[in-house]
From TrEMBL, chain A:
The chain crosses the membrane at residues 19-38, 62-85, 106-128, 148-169, 176-196, 233-254. Keywords: Membrane, Transmembrane, Transmembrane helix. The keyword Transmembrane helix applies. It comes from Actinomadura syzygii. The lineage of its organism: Bacteria, Bacillati, Actinomycetota, Actinomycetes, Streptosporangiales. This is ABC transporter permease. The keyword Membrane applies.
TrEMBL record, chain B:
This is ATP-binding cassette domain-containing protein. Residues 2-227 form the ABC transporter domain. Pfam families: ABC_tran (PF00005). InterPro entries: AAA+_ATPase, ABC_transporter-like_ATP-bd, ABC_transporter-like_CS, P-loop_NTPase. Coiled coil: none annotated. It comes from Actinomadura syzygii. The keyword rRNA-binding does not apply. It comes from the Bacteria.
Length: 258, 324
């Protein structure tokens, strides 16, 4: 198992698409800081009355929206890029114990995504907070514990999406099909849930992967109220999604001919 | 040591490998021959645990490949030289393989030198020619210094120097006591490289023989043309010769349709004397030295006599259907 993890980590860090994905995460982190500078600048031009009515998005908002896309791409490429070239056969020849290989790939991709997400969220948030300084923006100055919990769950949700996509990729075996399906789930399905009659629109939306971190630990200082699930239920649901995707993916990976 | 026993692999309604049995022993280069689609690659994929056998078994060193903990130290395989990520550097492609099998990193440098890719070790594989990819694939197979080696069409895409290099490498690896199995659809290449031959067609074993035996079986024949082939066949077979209709079919010569027979086990003089004794006219008697290439073509021509060879394969319903 250690050999398999080491080999998969070696693979992940020696292809350029990995650098591209994490490069994108880095760029969005910098954009979080730029956004914070803009908010501070805008704030300075407001009257006291306007300031009391203004709610700025928290500094990590940009990352919270873009991390899922990066997570989907990483999760898909981890396996489907090998099917495109036939590399999966080379991988299975080197590491023929399939469940071990599947686990190592999941661990490396999920772990790398979690580390990159948490690092970029922390840097983006703290950078943004430093840029706005002592301006009284509530979304920038939440309690440390609640802020940390919020960032942690946004990061965990990104890692969860990487794992879900990885499981889907093991079944579909195609980069295009996997990324299209998952981005459809992230971008199109939320819009469709809004077409349902109330209160089913909120209920359906609350079940979507991207809606879960906000229901578990909302960004401090935001008005909140999005989603109808209690935090523990949302957390369990995230774990269930990951477990189902990985179980189906592992079954497909272990049982089908390579 | 590679053992395949009664191996069958079906993909839906297609039978790719049909009750195939053979063994590959150490110290020899064994050629695995058959036309495209004969089931060579499928057999190798089953041997490497990539595809599951429908029935039967395929063993390496007495066990299943998929059960090996560090397989590259026991078995080196090259199935598809294109199965590499183009964005990765040659050194890194071997690097992750080494890491996954507990092979020291210095072996990466060693095998890259051995296959002549040391100069491009830090180049991305996407820029490699097919020949360079073949060399990289061979380097990967050699990485763990394994006792068993399997190569699927290793000379594809290589220039004449590369072909000779492969030939010498395979022979050297076998001389070190390793088990070497090379698949090919080119008999001309195997003639120069292999000691033993396993010939398959339509997933079934056609011949498991040495190169020398095959050359003798097909190479010392006499081609006879006669207007009375049935009578001559009877006479020659009674004398202990083997007689088979020769490729090319009956030739029309004047008014008579002559039969062409490939006769084995009898020389030109004996055939001529016996024909004269029985008064059978002969229109042509040619000592025929078939090349291995021709022998192979005859073996794999898809002709019923060869695919339903009663000596190597019992006739099954499937065969009956196929040859009817």
């Amino acid at each position: 198992m250690i050999d398999a993890f080491a080999a998969e980590w070696y693979k992940l860090r020696t292809i350029r698409s990995t650098a591209a994905v994490f490069g994108a995460v880095g760029v969005f982190m910098l954009l979080c800081v730029l956004y914070s500078w803009y908010v501070g600048h805008y704030w300075d031009g407001l009257s006291a009355a306007e300031r009391s009515r203004t709610e700025a998005s928290p500094p990590d908002q940009l990352l919270a929206v873009t991390l899922p896309v990066c997570a989907v791409v990483l999760g898909a490429l981890t396996l489907t890029s090998e099917y495109a070239t036939g590399m999966h056969r080379t991988s299975l020849t080197a590491l023929p114990r399939r469940l071990t290989l599947f686990t190592a790939k999941a661990g490396v991709a999920g772990g790398a995504m979690l580390a990159a997400a948490l690092a970029s969220l922390a840097a983006g948030f703290l950078g943004g907070k430093a840029v706005v300084g002592d301006r009284a923006l509530p979304t920038f100055h939440g309690p440390a514990g609640a802020t940390a919990a919020h960032l942690l769950w946004v990061g965990l949700a990104a890692a969860a999406l990487t794992l879900i996509t990885y499981g889907v990729g093991a079944v579909l075996r195609s980069t295009a099909a996997t990324i299209t399906s998952m981005l459809g789930l992230l971008i199109v399905v939320p819009v469709l849930t809004r077409l349902l009659p109330s209160p089913w629109d909120d209920r359906a939306w609350s079940l979507l992967p991207e809606a879960l971190p906000g229901q578990i630990a909302a960004a401090p200082g935001t008005s909140g109220g999005e989603g109808v699930l209690p935090a523990p239920v949302a957390a369990v649901l995230m774990a269930v999604y990951v477990a189902i995707a990985l179980a189906v993916g592992a079954f497909s990976f272990v049982r089908r001919d390579a | 040591m590679i053992e395949v026993r009664e191996l069958t692999k079906r993909y839906g309604a297609t039978t790719a490998v049909d009750r195939l049995s053979f063994a590959v022993r150490p110290g020899t280069v064994t050629g695995f021959l058959g036309p495209n689609g004969a089931g060579k690659s499928t057999t190798m994929r089953v041997l490497l645990g990539l595809d599951a056998a429908t029935s039967g078994e395929a063993l390496v060193n007495g066990g299943r490949y998929a059960a090996l903990r560090r397989p590259m130290r026991e078995v080196g395989a090259l199935l598809d030289a294109g199965a590499v990520h183009g964005g990765r550097r040659a050194f890194d492609h071997l690097g992750w393989l080494a890491r996954g099998n507990g092979i020291p990193a210095r072996r990466v440098t060693e095998v890259l030198e051995q296959v002549g890719l040391a100069g491009v070790a830090r180049k991305r594989v996407a820029g490699f020619s097919l020949g360079m990819r073949q060399r990289l694939g061979i380097a990967a197979a050699l990485l763990g210094d394994p006792g068993v080696l399997m190569f699927d069409e290793p000379v594809n895409g290589l220039d004449p120097d590369g072909v000779r290099w492969i030939r010498e490498l395979m022979r050297a690896l076998a001389a070190e006591g390793r088990t070497v199995l090379i698949s090919s659809h080119l008999m001309s290449e195997m003639e120069l490289t292999a000691d033993r031959l396993i010939v398959i067609g339509r997933g079934r074993l056609i011949a498991d023989t040495s190169v020398r035996e095959l050359a003798q079986r097909f190479g010392r024949g006499v081609l006879v043309r006669t207007p009375r082939p049935a009578e001559l066949t009877e006479v020659l077979e009674a004398a202990g010769g083997s007689v088979e209709p020769a490729p090319g079919g009956p030739a029309t010569d004047g008014r008579l349709a002559d039969g062409r027979l490939a006769v084995g086990g009898l020389d030109v003089e004996a055939i001529g004397d016996m024909a004269a004794a029985k008064g059978i006219p002969l229109h042509e008697v040619t000592p025929h030295s078939a090349s291995l290439e021709e022998a192979y073509m005859a073996l794999t021509s898809g002709n019923a006599e060869f695919t339903a060879d009663a000596k190597t394969q019992p006739t099954t319903e499937a065969t009956a259907r196929r040859t009817s």
